[in-house]
Amino acid sequence: MQFEVFTLLPEVFPPYLESSILKRAIQRGLIGIHLHNIRDYTHDKHHITDDTPYGGGGGMVIKPEPIFEAVETVLGLASLPSPPTPVPNIPIILLTPQGRVFNQRMAEELTRHERIALLCGRYEGVDERVREHLVTDEISIGDYVLTGGELPALILIDAVARLIPGVLGDPTGAKDDSHSMGLLEYPHYTKPSDFRGWKVPDVLLSGDHAKIEKWRREQALLRTFNKRPDMLEKAELTKEDLKFLKSLGFE
How far apart are CA 145 and CA 123, in angstroms? Predict the structure, then answer.
């Protein structure tokens, strides 16, 4: 999978991308992350990418010209005066607090694309014509405001990349993650089995895989019931799940 990232601050990305799992995924050719500096697509002496908003008000707005030129050039879109035609199967995503809130299901949907374009907003945002005539989707990482779209872009890249086969060391690792199965994940333990008198549950030391799986499922249900009961409304629950939840007082 290839990510095309359009940003005013490309230097933000390498420290995270050149570490740990994502670094290895890039080295192995499982993902590609190309950073494009929007300033490189300006044509004035000072490489100006923003200006004051029409109608007044505080802050600055990113101009449409360099954004359109950057995305059109990299993705090979037809340039103005005619509106660009989106390349089939390449989402052009604006990271913005006005977008639909990102979740695990959206991450899974995005893995179906071989190439994704991410546009990082800054200042007061982008010129509205970018929203209307260029981007194909708008995504937010939560109901709060950051200084730019770079952190949200990294979060999206991380969440999507780890779902690509081969990126994680454990082939089934992503399947049991919180939210992937519609529930919060069950507890994990490692050595030592007894730490300061706090012991690992006996079932995990039993070697009985059927009992372990049952315990893990019930713990996931219990944790979700206690911390995020709203998730149970959409989770795929078996008769055994419902029986266990009923014993907890779930209606």
Answer: 11
